[in-house]
Amino acid sequence: MKIGFIGLGAMGRAMATNLINADFDVTVWNRSTDKCQPLVEAGATQADSPADCATADVLITMLADDAALAAVVEEHGLIEAMGENTVHVNMATVSVATGRDMAARHQSAGRAYVAAPVLGRPDMAKAAKLQILAAGPDAAIETARPALETMGAKVWPAGDEPYRANVMKLATNYMLMSAVETMGEAAALTAKYGIEPGDFLEIVTSSVFAAPAYQAYAPAMSKREYDNPEGFKLALGAKDVDLALAAAHAEQVPMPMGATARERLAEAMAAGDGDKDLSALAEVSRRGAHLDD
Q: Which residue of the set 2, 126, 169, 192 is catalytic?
């Protein structure tokens, strides 16, 4: 099977590498061309433009945000360049509005489109343990399934309308932001009373909150070590909360905790923590509690 892969950030690079290692015929493109070289050395072909990836059996896009996806689609004529039987699988986290727009554009052009955002960080992408939310026409998903199953631990059906997978991803990340924020607040409370954050967090993440959303971020909070290239950047978390709130506003769904989460994420970014791991959100609570004064 021929795969075109566009977007080689931390997630995309790991996902494309797994496809190469599984002997798929992979052609890659990235705006910063130097990121293609390690994959070429692993066996991929480097495309001169995104359109060169579009004639594959499955075209995968894993770009940073709505704007990056729009730039590739519009500036490079990606949909127009797609083969008649090519399935475009967009695995990036994008807004519901963009998800709907992409589906409509592909339908107008008579091309297949699947939204398949992922749950998991770069370390999980490397280990091919991503949870993949796939929504779109059944036949298109089945065409892409061998590639999806190579990159993830499970492919979850999310409906026949692609935007539904986008909604599910945003709702999940909204819950994640809330979990990390409340964990940071609770750790600050216990620290104020002389309890080591690591001791408290080990207890709760081994018992009542023994779940990946907590266990993945507690160690960094305990050590206050937030420079993690394999982690989920705080700024991306803020972007996802914005997208979730926009989706909620569009359908008049109250999400009051979202405003608090967004405010706290903004405080963290103002403090220079945007490129750090999401667990750095705990520092906002520490500063508010004057723990380091």
A: 169
Range 2-161 has CATH code 1.20.1070.10: no
Question: Which pLDDT band, with edges at 50, 70 and 90, does 293 fall under?
Answer: confident
User: Catalytic: 169?
Assistant: yes
Average pLDDT over the chain, rounded to whole? 97
pLDDT at 143: 99
- Picking from 260, 75, 63, 269, the residue whose alpha carbon sits closest to that of residue 177 is 260
Four-way CATH pick for 167-288: 1.20.1250.20, 3.40.50.1820, 1.10.1040.10, 1.10.357.10: 1.10.1040.10
φ/ψ of 289, rounded to 5, equals -90, 0
Instruction: Tell me how crowded residue 52 is: count the other CB atoms within 10 A of its CB.
Output: 18
Give this prediction's pTM: 0.95
